[in-house]
Amino acid sequence: MSNAVEDLTMQIAQVVPCTEAEGPGRRFALWFQGCPLRCPGCCNPEFLSFKGGQTKTLGEMTEWLARTQEESGIEGITLLGGEPFAHASAALSLAKVARLRGLSVMVFSGFTIEELQTRQEPEVAELIATTDILVDGPYIREQPDTERRWIGSRNQRIHFLTPRYYYDQQWRQKNTLEIRVDRDGISVNGFPAADAVGLWKGWKRKKPVALPTVDRDLAPAKPGFTAAPSTDTNRTQGTETQ
Ligand code: SF4
Known about the structure:
The protein is an alpha/beta fold.
């Protein structure tokens, strides 16, 4: 990477370098700071403002990602928000780094893929093309998803944009909530069971994570899964529907 690229900055709300609560396998999860949407019941209200968070360079994040891959054997990155497509250039840069390292890319967006496909910015289209799994659509509090792991509400769709993943048994397991406690406070990520929602309310959420100095079985696809030709003729697209 050239210095100019490495110096690209991004506004980050939180990083959990190795989690099993934000997609298949162990993943490096990164929440951007800032979302233009306002879904009632959003579980990350402190990540909505475009002010705040921490400014990090692509070089710093690449180094962190590489170290985590070496130490924890992550299989991919997950980009969340905030809204990753409101940070499309930074998100694309991270996705490209991940792909170069053989890691998969999963993105959660409050926009639908159809809305994203109307956007004019080339980096938006390129980010879609560099994504293996896109979970799209706003969070709807009245439609909590209790069937699909890692998914917030039933309206949200899982688009398998490459053949790397498909709707298998791991998507039907119970949701995972991870709570980490360290000297800086408490961080929570993942989706809780319905009867555990709000369990941690009142706990002080940890400040955005600073760069540290130290420190499943296949089953037939769920009815409703459809596979359709992708708009990219070099890839296949599967979309899990309700
Ligand atoms: S898109 Fe996500 S981060 Fe943005 S308001 Fe909706 S739930 Fe919250």
